[in-house]
Protein 1
Amino acid sequence: TLEGSGTGDSRPHVPFTAKSLTTGQTVKLLDYAHGEVQPGPDNTVFVRGGSVEQGDGLFRISIGADGTPVAEAVAVTGLPVALGYLGAQIPQPFDVASPVPLKWKLSRENADVDLRITHRATGKSFSKTLNLYSESAGSPYYYHDDTFGITWAQIAAESQMGKDAEVGTYDWSFTARPQNGVGPDLKASGSFTAVKNVSSPHDLDWDGGPDLLVRDTAGVLWRADSEYDPARKTLTESWTDRIGPGWQIYDRIETIGGVGGGAADFVARDKSGVLWLYDVTGNGYKPTIAGRKQVGGGWNTYTQLTGGSDLDGDGRPDLVAVDKAGALWFYKGTGNVAAPFATRKKIGTGGWGIYNQITLTGNIGGAAGGDLIARDKDGVLWLYLGKGDGTFTARKQVGGSWGAYTDTIGIGDANRDGRPDLFAYGPNKTAYFYAGTGDYRKPFDTRVASPVLTDQPAYNHVS
């Protein structure tokens, strides 16, 4: 006789077994089975199920040479049987003030996870068992696509370590136990660096993925929410959120990072030269954009401006601008939304007028501070390494043919490897993702085509 049960849910599985009616001996054939057993030729049967050794699929049950039943895989589905660890999804560095969760991906969801997080310097720790399931009311620690995690707010609600929120290095480890009893326990470990209330360079909703502000030809402003796809190694678009009409009154819109820390803010310059600040509050799902605040007039003296990167090491995003005479000016971020920038300081005398686009990128070259890339009129891209004091070293050529893009944007660390990345948008709705390498000699990896904005209407401004 054949006995067994099982589905992909969390209920304990009964192994699929064969029992001899003569001796009473029981032989385990599969870790689970579901559906009806179908008869086959020559005293065989077929069953849908799986085992840790052979995987999930369709199996033929037959009598072996020694008279004992055996299960042979006829076709496998590729679905996981044993729990597998597919990596951590933790921003580097991780901001303990943000709503972005620490996340890990498994090969399947139905597991109980014993998680431990320890601050390396103090030894303070947090431990909790996370029961993962997606059915019914769901688990507060299960997100989607076999990914689980926990926010720092959840940690703080249950531990002094979370309330103290020390910066520095944390070690994490977990043991995941399959709820259905199929396969061995899974162990994984790693570490991350924590910071507190640090500016997000291009994340308006504060969900951990970069956002783009885009304006269509009718003057409507949109926010394109994006995320990194590790399988395709590029930036993909989650959705596009309509902000509103009337943005054609501005000739420049720039995301500048979180002025007071947290979600990224942005500035817009009107055609009379007045610069306006839009303070953004992110909650991990959707941003709230406050009414505009006037920064000041006279900004039409600048042909180029860019922001969002910390150039002087104080943890606040700064802004630089090129005037009509070709001089480069540094605006130090104050951390105060009411007066976001200190008095300007000239950091480059002439010569910057040769560029038709400049972009602050964050620290892409591995030197002391935030860096800047500049594109000349021949399409050649140049890298200026930040010294960490608001100034830059002599330029280094990155490469040519960058004139193919209308916008190059320092989007922050999209792929969560600790290095800032770049997004490029061009005519005919083409888009590319450039992963940062951390090496000033080759600051960007080979470009990968991105679907972001490519299936949308054409935009006349992307930032």
Note: The radius of gyration is 28 Å.
Protein 2
Amino acid sequence: MKLGLHLDDYSWRPENESIAQVLSRIAVITDEGGFARLSVTDHVWQTSAHGVESDPMLEAYTTLAFLAARTATVELLTLVSAVTYRPPGLVAKMVTTLDILSGGRAMLGIGAGWNEEEATGLGLSFAPNRFRFERLEEALQICLQMFSESTRPYRGKHYTLASTLNSPLSTPRPRILVGGGGERRTLRLAARYADACNVYGGPSAGHKLQVLREQCQRAGRDFDEIEKTAILPLDPGGPGGIPGLLQRLAVLRDLGFDSVLGAVPGIDAITPLESLVAKVIPEVASW
């Protein structure tokens, strides 16, 4: 099983250090400490799950570029991009650029999005639920076409591209992760288009994999081709301490998950991250 660090909160208050300095230290420890991935949330305001909307929040792709310059091995992605926030042709170009400049370490993490308040606040595109999922499917088709050598036009219900020219191309193409556990739409799209699928690592995680398997059967897709990832807090000070965390990770492993991404509470103190590097990653790597 692989572990990834997820960043969803930048409300850091270390003495005499800027957000950039703390983020740089986190990136180096993550990269050198054996984490496989480093992901960032794609919000422009903080969500109620982590604080108040006025808390610090960094734009995702600018942050990934910063992280790419400070790391050498970890894969980089959003978990996950809201499909309506940026035109899909531009997203494909951004991810290709990140992949080329990072030496092949970028993934496209994408989903339907949900935070209407922040979108309305900054004038970003949003739409009712059904239309966001229609746009998500078209965006996946567009990105796959732009990751290939095809330059033919794309004409969908929501997006029209006169040409999908994307030069230079990244070879092999960036892998695509679809995030979300919606059983009728999200997992259907993951089965049809994704290289990886991310769901929450709670009690329903095993059921979500079963639904994904059923969607793969309907789509004629090999279930084993899709990487199964889960998001779970990586808190060395949580219930049961390190042994408790390892037990929760083992449950996901036994359900069939290939990798787990998670945020680390109090990460600006660095110590919790160092605990994971010293006591959790070596154990998980041996599974």
Note: The mean pLDDT is 96.
Protein 3
Amino acid sequence: MLSGIFLSLVFIGMLLTIGIIDFKNGSLTFGLDLSASTPDFPQKSLGDLLGLLSGIFYGLALFFYGYRKDVDSIVRGVWNFFWAACATLVMSIVLRPWHGISTFTATNWMWAVALFLVCGLFALGFLVVAGRNLPAVEYSTISYWECPVAILCGLLVWGEKLTPMGMIGGLLIVGGGLAPIIVDAIARKSRASTS
């Protein structure tokens, strides 16, 4: 029951940060505006749609990582990286970025290697191992930390604007993600003191 409440807080926080739940013109609005493109992001609607699909499949991955405890984390990690690389190759062929890669400078290649290490090796590697060792609900609440981290990086690095509803959503994500850890620590402490 408590885990469901924490997961709900995180989920509502996510909806607030991405603007599905928003406060505009004095009223609460629900929904994703797939027609809201900007000069900086002319294909924002496509990005929103693909992001939503990515979230659905990511959620399914979190469930199956926890469900298949019989599969070793290393084996799961290898297959995870393999299929991620295949999907990236397919998307690269569809998007045809070859002209951009041919003009890569040394700095571009250093960023590519850094992104591989941070986003691929560490993020997906830790995700796979965590999925084997946590229940699906706790795993999903903790993994939503990606939202506040992305918001903070966007704010500090690219100067992206953060709305008041986005701030509330970020706080709900952080609170809902930390709460299971805190509750578990308190429960362990009380069990230890009664033993």
Note: The helical segments are 2-17, 44-67, 73-95, 98-101, 106-133, 136-143, 146-157, 164-194.
Protein 4
Amino acid sequence: MSIIQSIDPSTGRAVEDVATATPLDEVDATVVRAAEAGHVYGQAGRPLRSAVLRAVADELEARRARIVALGCRETALPEARLNGELTRTVYQARLFADVVDEGGFLEATIDHAGDTPMGPGPDLRRMLVPLGPVAVFGASNFPLAFSVPGGDTVSALAAGCPVVVKAHDSHPALSLLAFEALTAAVASAGGPDGLVGLVFGRHAGVALVTHPEIKAVGFTGSLSGGRALLDAVNSRPDPIPFYGELAGLNPVVVTEGAARARGEQIAAGLVASVTGSGGQLCTKPGLVLVPEGAAGDGLVAEAARLIERSPAAVLLNSRIVQAYESGTLEWDGIEGGAPSGSGFAVSPRLFEVDAKTLADTPVAECFGPAVVVARYAPSGVRDALRALPASLTGTIHAEPEESETVSQLTDALRPLAGRLVYNGFPTGVLVSWAQHHGGPWPSTNSLHTSVGPTAVRRFVRPVTWQDAPPGVLPEELRDGPCGIPRRVDGELVPSGTDS
């Protein structure tokens, strides 16, 4: 049986044996328990959902010191980054509890029986209901916010779905500690045993997505890993939703005016964005389009100088190191601080190409602290953008007097990205109602976001009750005052108003 070891990325050596790969019969038992718990959880209604989510936040906060210390050792991410990520994880659990309490996400709608332009109409009542057990795959680069207690898990719990998480092998000990917090939270809130589950190992992951009780999958990871799981999902007799957040270049376009006015400032922001967290962020800018000419030359020279001075970055695991080295091997460029020779350290790198070559020599995402600078002539930037695959983000740096150029670039980038950033950098994804973290393939294969309250839409489906007796209706669809906003006979009705 395969042993799951905890590796210290700074040395590349195993520190402890954490678990064994979950046997397939245990995967089955875990999913079945989750499905049974899901029935109880769904019947209990919104109060239990919000109680569980608030308890998750409390249990994670209570373990903050242990979580951050273990995370630093197991990921080599700095303490400040992990403290910030834990704060985000706690916040989003409480935010989703607020979403559940508010109830608008249910889209509760009532059309009473009566005459219509089409003749007499029946009584119709519609609401979003939980899909069922959800499989969540922990991400290597966000060991908290996109892992065991992360956004996929809390949005599924908010939707009313039980969750089984496939732990990422890059941080198995941290996954266990976070799972301890989840199970304690469910118990303290009075939730059913088995509402959350945890499995280890690649074979367990495949068994999870093909299990007949699993009704949706949340995945954050590589394009190749996502494709393999998507193939497994599509092999099911009943294909289910697969929400994959996968890959992207996240292009940045710098205009002539911006390069001239603040080239050094843009270069500093770019290098910080590329090298932060070892460049292991799904929103890291992988390609920056810089104008030809003196202003662009100055920006690139400053970025190269900063890259040369950047220290080596310790990556999360050996697979990421191998992909980084092979992905940058064919390019000639500027390298930063030399790796120490131990562990998973790599040098930050900057490469420069002619934008006209992008159509013939496409640039792919390189996970790690590397960036490609493509120099463009004024008439060639839109052609260069047309040669790029879609991404999570697209960024424009421009000056106020370049409004027409900004409009043209926005039109060119909008089909390629789920979030458009102006005079900033895409790393750093605020958890908020207006956030969208997604984009066209290959960045994701979904129209939904994986960050923010509307992420809950991934794990619900609509059901309409026609001429139903009141006793079978969910509380939110019954006549009388209701604690959530609803649309009644075509009119939006605020919370607390009698229908």
Note: The two ends are 59 Å apart (CA to CA).
